[in-house]
Request: fold
Amino acid sequence: MPYEIFVGLRYLRAKRRTRTISLNTGISITGITLGVAALIGTLGIMTGFQEDLQAKILGTTSHIVIQTRGQQPMAGYTELIHQVERVPGVVAATPYLVRQILLTSRNGVQGIVLRGIDPEKEPEVTDVANNVTVGTVRDLATPSLPAPSDSGTLPGMILGKELAARLGVFVGGRVNVVSPVGPVRATGMTPKIRPFQVVGLFASGMYEYDASLAYVALNEAQKFFGFNGTVTGIEVKIEDVLTADTIASRINAALGTDYLARDWMELNRNLFSALRLEKTMMFLLLVLITLVASFNIVGTLAMIVNDKQREIAILKAMGATPNAIMRIFMLNGLVIGLTGTAIGIPLGYAFLYLIEQYWTFDQTVYYLSHISVHVKAVDVLLVSCSAILISFAATLYPSWQAATLTPVSAIRYAE
Reply:
């Protein structure tokens, strides 16, 4: 064993002839351990929350949305779907129609977003079918419940559970769709009103969707809004959601300049940018814990240098170079950093496990039952490297101070 390693490890131990580390060394290791554990725990929770939110958004919306550049109704969408499905990486595509309307019932009025979907192809593109808790998506095409009126069978509608609660309606109930854009008569524009029957409820896990979104069959939406043979756009599902921007560029190249394909990250850019910024800022703030712990390392090494002046002078008199003296004390800081990191990583994982398994919430209040966590390998690597680098940087000044001691003055003034 090189003598630098032997001496450096000996300086970390207590003064008495024991195999225990000194109190100052233990405090320094504890500071690094807590900093690493806090960083891993926070990043794991932030990553889990982001991925959970991403899954909920992609459960209701598609990976890529195609519209005309002028936001005009899209004609000839059947041929466009065939073109899109031939693009490498595309799994399925389906048309949709979306409009803002008023939804009324006997108990209330609510402004919502109404989506017309193809009941047969929509489950191939989004997870709407899996989100439906009462009824099925195919009930939109063929309502199985009798209409609560004498006018025959009404077209079906699926409501978000929060929206149904606000309107006070249940499956089998009746609601009226009111569009402010209707036929123009002598007295002005007349709103269009049409009754629908509630055939199902869905719960996406996102309050904004569950409280302001409803689904009807695409052909019924086209009839009501006067979209004869046209739609708002096309929804696309791809194989890998992380390559959505690349496949969107391929679709734009295949369809030409009249159409614009936008991926889910672009459509939700503000939300995910805010989450990434929050995660970055939390990382920077929690790094301060490790920085505070690094001052313990500085203080510990400075005390060792002051206490070991006679030994340092003897080592130099025996031929130890200043670089060798620096390596001794740099090794001390690295050992503290490595030990604290090695203990902090499993401690952070244990903290996340306890959070995920035993910390539950009232889902009616927080809209989630537990905290989702996910620790990425790159985050662990980033935290580990940061802790070790900070620990190493903390050794530079005490090591330089030890290396510049002269043997004569050190022996003369050493107590």
